[in-house]
Design brief:
heterodimer; A: 908 residues; Ubiquitin-like (UB roll); N-terminal domain of TfIIb; Rossmann fold; 6-stranded mixed barrel; 26% helix; 17% strand; B: alpha/beta
Chain lengths: 908, 440
Amino acid sequence: MSETTGTGELTVTINGKQVVAEPGELIIDVAERSGVYIPRFCYHPRMKPVGMCRMCLVEVSSPRGPSLQPACFVPVADGQEVNTDVDGARKAQEGVLEFLLLNHPLDCPVCDKGGECPLQDQAMSHGPGESRFIEEKRHWAKPIVLGPLTLLDRERCIQCARCTRFAEEIAGEPLIDFFSRGDAIEVATFPDRPFSSYFSGNTVQICPVGALTSAPYRFKSRPWDLEQVETTCTFCGVGCRIVAQSSAGKAVRFLGVDSDPVNHSWLCDRGRYGFEAIHATDRLREPMLRRDGELSPASWNEALREVGAGLRQGLSSQGPTSIGIIGGARLPNEDQYAWSKLARAVIGTDNVDAQLGDGLPAEFVASLPQATIDDACAAKAVILLAGDLHEELPVLHLRLRAAAAHHGLLLVDCSPVPTALSEVAVALAPARPGEAAALMAALVASDDEVPEVPGVSAAAVSAARTVLSGLTGEEIVVVVGRTSVAERPDSLAAAAAALAKGLPGVRFLPALRRANVRGAIDMGLAPGMLPGRVSLDGAREWFESQWGSLPSGRGLDTRAMLEAASAGTLRALVLLGADPLADFPDRELATRALERIPFLVALDTLPSASAQLADVVLPAAGFGERGGTTTNLEGRVTRLAQKVVPPGVARPDWVIAVEIAERLGVDLGFDHLEGIWEEIEQVAPAHRGATVSAVYGQPGDGVVVPVAAVGLPRLAPARLDPMATPGIDSVITQGAPMFAGAAAVGSGGVEESEVIEEGGAAPAELPTESVTPSGPPRPSPLAFDADSWPVPAPPVPDAYSFRLVTRRSLYDHGTLVQASPSLAPLAPSQELRVRPRELDKLGVADGDRVRVRSARGELVLPVAADEAVPAGVALIGLNLAPVDQPGATALLDSDEAAQPVRIETVEG
Amino acid sequence: MLTDRAPIVSARLGHEDSHTLERYLATGGYEGLRKALSMTPEQVHEEVNAASLLGRGGAGFPAGRKWSMLRKASTTYLVVNGDESEPATFKDHLLIERDPHQIVEGTIITAYAIGAAQAFIFCRGEFALGLERLTQAVNDAYAHGALGPSILGSDFSLDLVVHPGAGAYICGEETALLESLEGKRGFPRIKPPYFPAAIGLYGEPTVVNNVETMSNIPWIVRNGGAAFAALGQGSSTGTRLFALSGHVERPGWYETEMSKTTFRDLIYDPKLGGGVRRGRALKAFIPGGVSAPWFFPEHLDMGLDQDAVGKAGSMLGSGSVVVMDETTCAVRAAWRISRFFHRESCGQCTPCREGAGWIDKILRRIEDGLGREEDLDLLLDACDNIAPGLTWPPRQTTICVLGPSIPSSIVSGIHQFRDEFLLHVKEGGCPMPPDEVRHV
């Protein structure tokens, strides 16, 4: 491979070979680039170097003669001579390895790391060959439970501090640290403070020995028995690149891949250990039909015939608008497209909505001037107006946290309740629930006309304004997400519109929590939207030329569909992996609707509460069981890969769409995934240029759409560093080959794909027009219109009320977490958090049980005093009640600008 | 020859109440400070340069030169290292307990010279009485107007904090000390940056000076740098407080003129060490703390001179001289010293963390009669992997100099007393008599 890029300003000689480098680059990196591997343990390319393990000692020239220097810590200097393979350096390296192995138990045959162990590998490549140690080794009790998911074998530990540094530097949660000193030093937790970080699994991944093991993978497999594919995690909208590893047909481990624009090799524990849900014992394995009031197994034929009949009955009795489809955010893009087309072109309904009233308006997301995660991290300032990213989009939290804590990003946190990022924010101005637009207007107002913002102190507004003053819109990125499902999303859209007006050039990164909700919006799974970020009305002609007929007008969103169902005007409803009973922020309405709907079909992987009310249940293939692509919150399309077979006779959702279309007498025209993508590229305006070869042939980082705006990515050269992600490279070299087509990490594949050599985001050349010139013109994706998002009427003040803010927890009572045995018990219990002063006023003590009452319903739960909660706000966890019990959604009326609640004391 | 002149840092130690402000003021206390405040900081600095006062912490770096290396910045810190924790080293302990005001005055003058508004004295935590007296001295100095705002009516203000160490030898290493002072784990910092003068406490330029160095400052300012430089010879100017221990008749502390006094004077002079105990022959002695390579009878007539000792392959270091008589077991001595470093290794970097324990175990095994002939080469090679080449001053594979301090006693022992080591192996046990414990 070519090692120098020509932009360097200095030249160093490494093992006799001249290499061009840039000032500040570390010797270890420059050497690596020139093909010289220097052994290392403590060095990790994503963390600050510390030079502790001393494994990377090399001979470096200096005015006072050559000396041994740690290559991971010393930057290159012009004219420097580095020798990694001379006697002095080799002796030092062998010496360090001998030292490291003195007290190491050498229990490789029973160690999970055996076979993928940097200590083992480097002992072979850079060690002395045998030990001269005849004394008794150091002994420790083991294993030590560090946290709910992480165990420590202190005898194997080589004290490289990768784990403790990750916890402190990357996660910002220094829950593990060194204790004691010298050769008695050990990694430990503080008393009563377990290592319960959401990011604990990363320490296991980067541990260069078998000291840290994870509860879910411990003793599950050996590296040489693993097979892996590179794919994208779909537990939230960040879209971290992972490898999914399986053994004997079972998914056993997910590891983070170092995707530079996305996850830097880090994962959250929910994503990492969520593989357990794939093999949940209650996975839906076969279709089921309701017979005599009970769901019983049926064949696909019977079930699909029933679906066809049910839909036809609806069509013939009340027409296509009596049929609705809710859900689809967990589906891959191709499946979403198939269902979008099925709804519009076959059934003829626009009643489709992938979001359950818990996201942002689809037109808003589709039209926002978009920023990537990198753009946000590289911006001068970020305005955060979202839920707690630590809970909702953990790796986005990590990226922004690192940018703010280490790279000077100025973070202004305007979320209604301070978030985990608040501690690295330079200004805190919590927006009053339902009134974010007023705050944003004040942030961008000119100095002499700053309005007073209800519920926000002038000092907070002024602090935030100070941060933003002097910055242009281009230098600011707004991370906007649904701050709370207890407030209507239109106030957030209005807030964003205010920023777009006041800060020309500002860009937005939508904090979309559901896995592929961005894909769902892009594929038109939203009323009034069609694939490629266009509106039904705006793109009607074009799509009629492509698809045939279209619904005559804009359809219903989830809330309207549920209302129609409960009013009896909706005849048939299909749930695409959606569980309105658990997730729709108005449990009462969802219950009424699903009880009333005459014909209910559920496609799902697990028997959700809603699916159990269905007339037909169709088992869908889940994550890791099917291919396709997914779109993350920044619009990045990456590949999904199959690693295991679906349970029973479960099928991919797109196949089910094709089958249903067939039952309705229409051939959707799809028989393979690439074929669907080919049509997407041709039909969806925003996806033009994201060709099958660019998307399917692309390893790693994927393609950000619209390609025309940002271009195809440049592929990074393969890494030489097997120590960065030990468990991945070893499987490449000794496990089964990667899934055909998904290029291996670090090698292969690259040459065959379309690589743009230089210049990064060069605009892609769009393929030549394939439509006949006489056809209608291809529409452009929606442009953001700040005037179409008016400020909604503020909530009616009520002196006796609190405004409810809902907050998600990474671990909750949602189906997927509860289907993962290791994660299920980690969901916190439900409580209400209120400012201590307000509790005093109510005469309630921390820990007391209180009754929370809204016009919709009431809940009795414990209350906790929390100084961080703003006055007049009550914070409640979402989805924390067991499935069969009402949770926060029982209090919500989805039409409220901000949900008012009362807190009452409970007798006794 | 031993010179007969008034001591500098130990002048007050004869008084029972030497630690009190009253005694201090009665014996010229804070006069140096008054004089310094009448001078410009540059003039004070110049006096210290003229004194060519060598740092008394162990490395012997000229104090004035260290001050000159400060990076220009709006905030500068002064940190006084009182974390004396090495076996056989007890001179700072003495100064802290018996003349704390002298340290405080030296600290104030130094802070004035370098432009620091905040100073710290990092005092070994085990010095219970020392901490009490030092803290009292600081409080008294505040009450006296020598600390705080507008010191003695001048424009100069200084705050001084006494910080107790938490029990780790490594915190005497200046960068580990700074980490500890910042509230972090006492791990030495990796170089570069090479000097706290560039990036020190809280990232600001910092001077770290030893307690004894500070104790010399008031005298230098009162009497002038030239008067100090007139004592001693060559680069080893002034007097120095030596801690003499081991097999001598009169162990204790002795302040003598540098360079002009010889090791023979120190060990044998009736007014000083008074000779090897029980009239026995001298086997070896350590000239400057347990990390220094050993000296032998042929070195006795060398002056207590930093350059001369350095040229002869060891160091004057912390000024601790340990005498070993002919009954001393070289293996046991090396083992005791290695065990100390093993226990005090911070554990940050591999060679020292793992190597120190290994070496400790091997020496113990040899002493216990379970040694093998090849263990001698093994020991030397293990040492070589910590301090490549086993040169003096040592090269190092480690971050700080604790690791490379380990080989000194082993290399000295094996080179000088190889036969004695081998006898342990051959006889399956230690051929030397057991320790004679001296009951005082």
